[in-house]
């Protein structure tokens, strides 16, 4: 038979199944959870309703990239997919970047934030990617004092990801990246938070690079977004 259990990361598209399990008594007791505040974390089409392309700008080099709705999906869910970010070869400078980005307005306006639990999944295809360490793919978070993600709060930016070294590009594997206890400076009050899936040049180079991002999540102040996983028992 197949049993289910709850784990601390975020796949909100399985919330309906989680509720069904709770109602049937199959869910494990004593595991707290909270809603993922990211909208459309699973990149269901059309992604333009919640996600935008963001390119690096001054003081970093101007980025050149493309955002598309990728076919690969962490859970192989029909009608879902991922955000595919392609960093183009037309901008070879170090620190040039392209991102899939969302600005999340916090409910209730300005909110004291002490810590964040954020992250997601990254898949790095072998075709079209170098593995010389010149590029990385990462999930990034930034907090802002206004509701439009424009007034950055110093010290509230974090990132977790993978550098494209030999063996990292893989056409099947989804890397799990994130920080369950990202601490903000004392007294931080935010009205919005930005989450990004970014492909960035670490060193100058002319090769194009790309990555798929899926199941991005944010939980605030000790809350734990829920991921429903399964295992088989014979």
What is the name of the CATH architecture? Sandwich
- Residue stretches low in confidence (pLDDT < 50, at least 5 long) are 1-33, 228-234
**Approximate helicity band:** under 10%
The CATH homologous superfamily is named Galactose-binding domain-like
> How do the strands of the widest beta sheet line up side by side?
2-5-12-8-9
| Rg on CA atoms, Å | 18 Å
Which H/E pattern describes the elements? EHEEEEEEEEEEEEE
Query: What is the C-level CATH assignment?
Result: Mainly Beta
Mean pLDDT: 85
Number of strands: 14
Number of helices: 1
The amount of beta strand, in percent, is 35-45%
The helix-and-strand class reads: mainly beta
Largest sheet: 5 strands, antiparallel
* Total domain count: 1
CATH-defined topology = Jelly Rolls
Which overall shape is indicated by the principal axes computed on the Cα atoms? Answer: globular
Signal peptide: 1-34
Keywords: Signal
Descriptive labels:
disordered N terminus, single chain, signal, 5-stranded antiparallel sheet, 1 helix, globular, 234 residues, mainly beta, Jelly Rolls
């Amino acid at each position: 038979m197949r049993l289910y259990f709850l784990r601390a990361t975020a796949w909100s598209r399985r919330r309906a199944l989680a509720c069904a399990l709770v109602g049937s008594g199959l869910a494990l007791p004593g595991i707290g959870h909270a809603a993922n505040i990211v909208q459309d974390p699973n990149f269901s089409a059309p992604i333009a309703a919640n996600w935008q392309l963001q390119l690096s700008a001054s003081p970093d080099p101007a980025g050149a990239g493309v955002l598309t709705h990728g076919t690969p999906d962490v859970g192989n869910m029909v009608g879902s997919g991922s955000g595919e970010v392609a960093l183009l070869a037309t901008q070879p400078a170090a620190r040039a970047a392209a991102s899939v980005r969302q600005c999340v307005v916090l409910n209730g306006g300005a909110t004291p934030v002490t810590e964040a639990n954020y992250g997601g999944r990254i898949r790095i295809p072998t075709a079209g990617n170098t593995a010389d360490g010149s590029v990385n793919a990462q999930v990034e978070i930034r907090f802002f004092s206004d509701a439009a993600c424009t007034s950055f709060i110093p010290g509230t930016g974090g990132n977790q990801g993978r550098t494209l070294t030999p063996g990292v590009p893989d056409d099947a594997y989804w890397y799990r990246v994130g920080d369950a206890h990202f601490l903000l400076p004392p007294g931080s009050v935010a009205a919005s938070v930005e989450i990004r899936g970014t492909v960035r040049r670490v060193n100058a180079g002319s090769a194009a690079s790309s990555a798929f991002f899926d199941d991005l999540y944010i939980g605030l102040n000790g809350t734990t977004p829920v991921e429903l996983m399964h295992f088989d028992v014979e």
